[in-house]
Every structure is written in structure tokens, then in C-alpha cells.
## 1
Amino acid sequence: GENVEQHPSTLSVQEGDSAVIKCTYSDSASNYFPWYKQELGKGPQLIIDIRSNVGEKKDQRIAVTLNKTAKHFSLHITETQPEDSAVYFCAAGSGSARQLTFGSGTQLTVLP
Amino acid sequence: EAGVTQFPSHSVIEKGQTVTLRCDPISGHDNLYWYRRVMGKEIKFLLHFVKESKQDESGMPNNRFLAERTGGTYSTLKVQPAELEDSGVYFCASSQVGNYGYTFGSGTRLTVV
């Protein structure tokens, strides 16, 4: 089955700096790669996703890149703000109604 | 639009007891998923319903776990009897057929003592 590795497990950045979280996956059949943000006491919230026919996608301060050959994808957050502090999860899946395999999460702390 | 609702938000039970978790998906979402996060590790898939049918239950850990989705609306996940290793946060998520993204509920934190 699919295996997703996520690094780092914790990340602290100064407000205004950039943050990068990286994930690798094992199953070449995976074609959907979402990123979720989980704030304290809440469920994971989808913040951006990418499909395997796209190499990069951007939404304001958030961008995701995908390298299918190397089987890795990354989340980039620019101009970080304190409200970006949360746990971020990457995931991989195939098809629109299939299970997702999640990484173990990254605790991002943005220091004011 | 109301989100995915889960209750209870917290449950503390003794080993050997029974607990039932409930999930109300977003109205019109035929896909319903259960996931679990244990001890700060990754979020792991448990099972997937399409309407009232179990599409994939490959992630269910053992036969102490029973999930139902009567009438294709809300779903319940029963753990009977509960063991210590069942402690964790149980998430429910839903999506429309054909959509890739899930909407998660806030989760139920289950503690078995």
C-alpha cells in the first residue's frame, strides 16, 4: 500500500519568513495530493491540493509543488503570520473517492 | 452550509466498555469516511461509505469496531469492547461523489482508561 513520509515534524519560523514542508510517497498510482491544516480543537481543513498532471499550484501565500519522477511534493508558505501556526498534514490518494494516506504531520510555529 | 458534525467531542471510558461515536455529514454528501489519529501519529483511514454501502473497510483494525450508515445519512462507529490502544482522535469526513476534497469534522477524542 501507499506510504507517505513527512518532514520536518516540527518547524519554527519568524513571522514574515517562509516555511517549507516536504513529503514523499511510494505508490506511483497516487494522483491526488492534498494539504490539510489542523488548528487546535478543530478538524483538518483542506488548504490546497494538486493533481499529478500539474507540477505547481499557488493560492496567495501558499504554493504546492509536485515532482512525480522523484515521488515528492512540498508545501511552501510565504510571508508567514502567527495565524499560520498549526499542524499541517500532507496526503496522497488515487481517484476522487478513494482513501487518503496521510503523513505524520508538521507542527508549524510562527514566532512573532 | 452546516459542516460535518461529530459527537461527542470527548469520551472517556473504561477498558471493556462500549462507546458509540456519531457523524453527521454535510447534506448531500454521499461519501463518508472515518479516520483515526493515534498518539500524535499519522491520520489513518478506517473505512469509506458511499451512501449506506461500505465501499472500503480495509482500515478497520479488528472486529471490535462496527460502523453503520443507516439510510445513507448519519454514521455511527461503535467500539465494543474498548481496549487501551483504541484511544485517539476519530475523525469523520464527507465529500460529494466526484469531488476530490474532503470536509472533516472536529473529531471525537476517545480515551480508554
## 2
Amino acid sequence: QKEVEQDPGPLSVPEGAIVSLNCTYSNSAFQYFMWYRQYSRKGPELLMYTYSSGNKEDGRFTAQVDKSSKYISLFIRDSQPSDSATYLCAMISNTGGFKTIFGAGTRLFVKA
Amino acid sequence: NAGVTQTPKFQVLKTGQSMTLQCAQDMNHNSMYWYRQDPGMGLRLIYYSASEGTTDKGEVPNGYNVSRLNKREFSLRLESAAPSQTSVYFCASSGGTGFYGYTFGSGTRLTVV
């Protein structure tokens, strides 16, 4: 079993829809949670990071962490065609060398 | 504002050939990383360097070597390329242990035939 599971999609939505992207994890030591966006043939770029449980909002993006369920989400409001990309979740524990573990990514298509 | 620069962007190697992937960052970051990305596998850590003068193995180090040349530069060497090393390679850097995320380069697409 992978430490971090992420549905690969693809997920296709119409422009303006609310998008929900999710990851589950098995290691309860994970404390830091990140979302990266990766456009085709580009490197990942950091979208948001959160520490421990709770919500964090940045413009149209909201990151949510539920440590009791070992579940994290990224919500995109008013989705745009420019949001079409692969979204990677990532997490770090505060033990064992602080290595980042990435999900495999969910591919999102937003149709105009 | 170059960030993390990787060269080359594309490379085709024959089995058994060697090559070095170059990476440089201009953000004065202490930590640098090499990842490979394969379909369905996500990003897997090959080697990392927590600070100048140190390097450590990641999840998939076999077949690779690294050099932290100075604070800015971190290279990845394939001594004898194998088809299993066909992948997209990303270099990344972070100010500390990566709690606040990494800055990635644009990647090197390597094909070993």
C-alpha cells in the first residue's frame, strides 16, 4: 500500500464548476501538507501548504486537512480552463528525516 | 528570477552510456533534491543534499550518483544508463527541510534505448 493515495483521474468539469481534489494517507506522523500544480511538460509549482489540521484559503483555492480521517482536499472555486493541469498532493512528517512524499497526481480538465 | 535551472531539457542515450544532469539554483537555498517522475508512480526521491557538502540517498538511488558542487549546483550522474532509467528528472530546492514547499526546475526528459 502506498503511503499517499491519489485518484489519477482524469477529472473533467465545465468552466465555473467547483472542483474537489483529494488524497488519503496512512502515516499519522504527517504534519505538513502541500498541493502542487503541474502543467504539461513543466515542473510542479507550489500552490498551497498547511500545517496540521484545518482550512487555508488563497483566492479561488481552499486546502483542507482532516487528520482524524487521514484525508486532505483541495477545492477550486469558479474553475477556469487555465486550471487544467495535474495536481499533486505532498506531505512531510516531522520524524524520520523530514522527507516529502508525493501523491501520483490527479489530472484535471476544465472545459470552456 | 531564474529559480532552478536544469540542463539538458531532453536527452536520448544508448544503454550503457553515461551522462550528467546539471542543476543550479539562485535562491540561496540550502537543500537540493533530485526526483524522477514516472506515470502512475508520482515523484520519487533519488538523492538529496541537505546542505553544501552533504548528500544522502533517497527512495530510488541505485544506478545514480550525485555531487553537490557548491551551494548553487547539484548534479546527477548516470554511470551506465539502463532502459529502466527512462523518465523525467526534476531538480528541486528548498530553504530548509521543505516544510514550506520546494521550487522545481522544468525537468529533463531522458530516454534510454
